[in-house]
Structure formats: structure tokens, C-alpha cells
Amino acid sequence: MKIFTARQIAEIDAYTIEHEPISSIDLMERAAGQIFKWIISHFPAPQSCKVFVGPGNNGGDGLALARMLADKNYAVEVFVLRITDKISDEAEANLERIRNLNTLDLYEMTSIESMPWLFKDDIVVDAIFGSGLSRPLEELSLDVVKAINASDAKVIAIDIPSGLMGEDNSKNNLRGIVRADYTLSLQFPKLAFLFPENAEYVGEWEVLPIGLHPEIIQTEPTAYKLLTREFVKSLLMPRKKFDHKGTYGHGLLISGSYGKMGAAILASRASLRSGIGLLTTHIPRLGYQIMQTAVPEAMVSIDRSDIIFTEYPDLSQFKAVAIGPGIDKKQNSFKAMIDLLKEVKVPMVIDADAINIIGEHPELKEELPMGSIFTPHVKEFERLVGKSGDSYTRNCMQREFAKKHGLSLMLKGAYTAICCPEGTCYFNPTGNPGMATAGSGDVLTGIILSLLSQGYSSHIAAIIGAYLHGLAGDLASVDVGVEALTASDIIDYLPKAWLHLKK
Ligand SMILES: NC(=O)C1=CN([C@@H]2O[C@H](COP(=O)(O)OP(=O)(O)OC[C@H]3O[C@@H](n4cnc5c(N)ncnc54)[C@H](OP(=O)(O)O)[C@@H]3O)[C@@H](O)[C@H]2O)[C@H](O)CC1
Ligand SMILES: [K+]
């Protein structure tokens, strides 16, 4: 699903009005109708509804919604914030439609003195500002937002919480943003919904389709996309009857150190559960027996060191290489890593301490094989790319790094972001907080190595890998819950995740 900027949404809106064709007031009626349907299905018993309305079309949506709710016997009070003399034509028309209705109460607010008391059982509809917000809130709108946030009422934001910018909130006044329980976004999610620091404003969010024109949605370019099952499924390569294990590639996993052999086991098992033809796992000598016992399907390559990674086998037979899970940052590992980066010609997955080694030796960034995939969590990301004060800026740095070095850079977390060399950033919707657990990243590395070895191109392997990993975690959490979920559970649910994805 494409994610557009506020400016693009306005263009898509205008295109729809011209080419469907539909009048803009009817499009607003359609948007309000969708929100109305959502509210009556989630809050079916008519109850007290206080609708706060701003000067633009977001306010217009709120006014049309107020009329619909009043018609359905909800006790509706509408508060029109007189912030400026300007009011959009559609908001004005919807204001006229309710001005003489006796089914609702209409108030004009010129100061915070007329702010009503908000009760716990009230539904507050936030229709003050939408995608047309151009600057941080001040004066009356700021005061109203603070009062809404101080209440216990259930807050439903239309399109986007008022005060939140669709993309960049690095210079915003964070005290002037509505903290919604639910955000009902029209047709597309906003980029800001996918950043962790905005979760407290957005609450639970849903996208409500309002029938914007499919032609422009398809042709309008965007750098941001939210993955869907249909899209990820469309990337899968079919398996053919006469395929053999050579068809699905031979991958090399460099993993494990003294005390961290579990990482090698987890990544190997995940790789084997994701369709790889042959897997060789290179480990320090001490791990030999445990590896052969725990993962009999994997071949083992033994390092001369008992405890760390210091060398690697002949690379000619491998279609892809993964390095990082459970290795250490010792000097000899660093030396072996330099040699490996210079020699390797196939795509690589670079994870964990392998990322940290590169972060500590920035000169290595110039050696990175094209088509590599980096899979840092936020701390590793900072060591590799640099620090930033907010997620939007971090995302810009991430996209820039991927483009500059010609590689895929995945930032792990809720809505894992995968930035590709050509500039697109995909966000992954699968996964849950139970997956923030030891070994979860090792499993992901194993899955991606497996996909690369099977011949998927780097960014596609990263996309399928992230989606599948999160899906396995989601399916596991249904049965084991989020607290008890372990990395081994994610592996155990990979078969179900594959079936679910291909359904
Ligand atoms: N997705 C769609 O296609 C549809 C969306 N709809 C709804 O429309 C809004 C967007 O409407 P728009 O009128 O563009 O924007 P707003 O409602 O957010 O309001 C813009 C007006 O507010 C002024 N403004 C902006 N920031 C501030 C501020 N901080 N303080 C005071 N005033 C502010 C702005 O003035 P400018 O000076 O910036 O020009 C505008 O006057 C969308 O979110 C949906 O809810 C349609 O209903 C259906 C189709
Ligand atoms: K809003």
C-alpha cells in the first residue's frame, strides 16, 4: 500500500474530483459516511459525542459526521473553533446544513472559556486539522487540544490527530498534538503513524477507503510503501517439480562464539525452515558437537579458533553469505571480516556484531559488497549510520545510506523499515512486542540468508524475510502469548507462516 505526503493526497483528491468525476462536497460526504459507519459499528449504543471542528475540510468532515450521528440519535454537540475568518467552502456548506437542525447543539468557540467539560463516557471527535496542517498549533487550537488531552474521554481523530504533521514532526510542538485513542485515516496511512514516538498520539489506527481514483493512486510515485500480504505473496517464486536442492542454493552462515552458539543454531534452523537448498554454518571449533546435534541438516565449517570467528571457508560454492549472529568484536574477527568483505562477490546479510565492527571501522563502509543487506536494530543503526533525534530524520538518513552504498538497510522494530538502493522505503506491518526477545534477530538473518541463496534479489529477500519473520511471530503469539514468546517459537511457526503467506 502506497503512503503519500499531505501534498500528494491533496493532488489525488483533486484528480478524483475531476476524473471520477465527483463534487468535492460529495467526496466529503463519502469520507464522513465511512467514519460514521466505523463509529456506529464500534460504539453502537447512541451516546454523547462532542465534535471539535476546524476551518478546513477536516472540519468539514467533522460537520458532516455530526449530522449523520445526530440522525442516528447520538447526543451530538458541535464546537466550531473560530481560529481564523477563513473557512473552506465545503466546511461552510456543511455548517449551513446543520445550522438549523434541532437534533444537535452547535457552538462557536472564540476562546477557551467556552470549552465544555469532557466526561469519561463522551466520544470526542477531533476534526480540528487534518492533512492541511501547515504549522504547529497555537492559541485557541493549542488550548483546546490540551483540554482534550487532559480528559478521560474516548478520542477519535479524523484522518490524523490534530497537530501531528503527516511526515516530519522534528520541529513540532509536541504538547499541541491530540492524543487519540483511534485514528481513522482516509484512504492511506500517513508516514508519521509508523514512527514509534507518534504512537501515543495516533493510538490504534485504521485506514478507511473513500474511493479515491485508482488511476492516480497507481501512477503517482512515492518513496514510502506499507507491505501487504498480497504484495509479498506476488514476490514469491514458484517451485517446480524437477527442482532439486541445488536449485535453492547453498548459503554460508558465519555465526557463533564462546557462550553464543545458540545464535548459530537459531539462524541455521530458521534458514533451513525457509527453503534453502544447502546450508554451511561456519562456527568456532568448540561449537562443533552442539551444532551437529542441534541442527543435523546443516553442514559445519570449523574455525581454527576455539572461541571466535577468525577465518572463513572457500567462498566459491556459496550463493549468499550471512555474518553476525553471535560473533564477537575481537581484533582477529575484525581482520577476518576485512578479508571477507574484500573477497566476497555474492550478496551478504550483515547483522549484529558484524554491523558493530563496521560501525567502529568506518573505512570498511567503502568495502561493502553491492547488494548487501544490513539488519540493525536502532542502537546498531546509530553505530553504523549515525544518531538522530527523531524517527523521520533517522528514516531520511537510512534512505540516504542505502542509496549511497547501493545496499538494502533494514531498521528493525515495530514497522521495520527496509530502505532499498533505488530509494524506496518499505514498512513491515507484521510482528508484535513479543518478538523483542533474545535471538529474534538471529532468526531473521537466517531467513534472509535462505532467501538470498534461493536467488531472490537483495531487497526482495529483505522484504519477504521481514514480513515472514513478523508473521511467524504473530501466529506464534496467538498460541503462546507475547510474554512467553521465544525465538525458537518464531522458527517453529515458520511453516505456518509460509502456508499463510501463500494462501
Ligand atoms: N483524503 C482526501 O482526499 C479527502 C480528505 N478530506 C479531508 O480534508 C482534510 C484536508 O483538508 P484541508 O482543508 O486541506 O486541511 P485542514 O482541514 O487540515 O485545514 C487547513 C486549514 O487550516 C489552516 N491551518 C493549517 N495549520 C494551521 C495552524 N497551525 N493554525 C491555524 N490554522 C492552520 C490552513 O491555513 P493556511 O494558512 O495553512 O493556509 C487551512 O485554512 C483531510 O485531512 C480530510 O479530513 C475530504 O473531506 C475528503 C477527501
Ligand atoms: K483531525
From TrEMBL:
HAMAP family: NADHX_dehydratase, NADHX_epimerase. Binds 1 potassium ion per subunit. Homotetramer. Its EC number is 4.2.1.136, 5.1.99.6. SUPFAM superfamilies: Ribokinase-like, YjeF N-terminal domain-like. K(+) binds at residues 58, 126, 162. Residues 228-501 form the YjeF C-terminal domain. The lineage of its organism: Bacteria, Pseudomonadati, Bacteroidota, Bacteroidia, Marinilabiliales. Belongs to the NnrE/AIBP family. It catalyses: (6S)-NADPHX + ADP = AMP + phosphate + NADPH + H(+); (6S)-NADHX + ADP = AMP + phosphate + NADH + H(+); (6R)-NADHX = (6S)-NADHX; (6R)-NADPHX = (6S)-NADPHX. PROSITE patterns: YJEF_C_2, YJEF_C_3, YJEF_N. This is Bifunctional NAD(P)H-hydrate repair enzyme. (6S)-NADPHX binds at residues 57-61, 130-136, 159, 263, 326, 377, 442. Keywords: ATP-binding, Isomerase, Lyase, Metal-binding, Multifunctional enzyme, NAD, NADP, Nucleotide-binding, Potassium. AMP binds at residues 412-416, 441. The keyword Protein biosynthesis does not apply. Its cofactor is K(+); Mg(2+). Residues 9-218 form the YjeF N-terminal domain. It comes from the Bacteria. NCBIfam families: yjeF_cterm, yjeF_nterm. Catalyzes the epimerization of the S- and R-forms of NAD(P)HX, a damaged form of NAD(P)H that is a result of enzymatic or heat-dependent hydration. This is a prerequisite for the S-specific NAD(P)H-hydrate dehydratase to allow the repair of both epimers of NAD(P)HX. One of its GO terms (biological process) is metabolite repair. Transmembrane segments: none annotated. GO terms for molecular function: ADP-dependent NAD(P)H-hydrate dehydratase activity; ATP binding; metal ion binding; NAD(P)HX epimerase activity.
